[in-house]
Amino acid sequence: MYQPPHFRMSDDAALLSFIEGHPLGLLISSGASGLIANPVPFFLRRSEEGEGACLVAHLAKANPQWQILAQGAEVLVVFSGANHYVSPGWYATKRETGKVVPAWNYQLVQVRGHARVHHDPEWLLAQVEQLTGQKEAHRQEAWAVNDAPEAFLAGQFKGIVGIEIEITSLEGKLKASQNRSPADREGVVSGLEREETPEAAAMLNLMQG
To answer: N or C: less crowded end of the chain, CB within 10 Å?
Structure first.
């Protein structure tokens, strides 16, 4: 990933927390048939010692990507956060010199690693329980995996395979107008405030955080 120094996110703890907050990753791999990419919800499994982490998920058996992963090739997973178009009209520099162009602000994290494929029903059950447990924890009537009939679950698990990606490389990028002057950044903030959309509000929180 192209990484100008002022956009680089280098705090691994913050990058892992970002993944936990944005668990839908784009899983990218390459095989004999070329590149393939699928959106996959991941659970970040941290080591008990506090060092290292891996991503766990599952794919439908009908999805051919798991067969590529089983060959052990390196994979790339991209987790995306807030993003928004930046109009040149928001910059103070536009009024001063006119020497401005459009931009796009965004935040993302990239993970690289090698995948292992799991078929064991107990492993699959633990993975699904971890992911749903994390996403259901805040609900008053949280759904649990064992709420579904056992026979039904057994049938569902026959249709999926598990994947585990040990993280070997982790990098993040936050492009939030850090390369602009204070006056230009204030103009971007004002522009986002006027947009009044959820996407604008998310980017505004990043810039003001």
So the answer is: C
Of 108, 110, 95, 87, which Cα lies nearest the Cα of 200?
87
pLDDT tens readout for residues 171-186: 999 999 999 999 999 9
Topology of the domain comprising 5-83+104-179 = Pnp Oxidase; Chain A (2.30.110)
What CA–CA distance (Å, rounded) separates 188 from 177?
8
Element (H, E) at 157: helix 150-157
Parse the chain into domains and list their residue ranges. 5-83+104-179
**Residue 114 in contact with residue 165, Cβ under 8 Å?**
yes
Cα–Cα distance measured from residue 136 to residue 109, given in angstroms and rounded to the nearest whole number: 24
Q: Say how far apart CA 113 and CA 67 lie, in whole Å.
A: 16
Phi, psi of 47 (to 5 degrees): -70, 150
Q: What share of the chain is helix, strand, coil (3-state, %, to 5)?
A: 35, 35, 25
Stated pTM of the model: 0.92
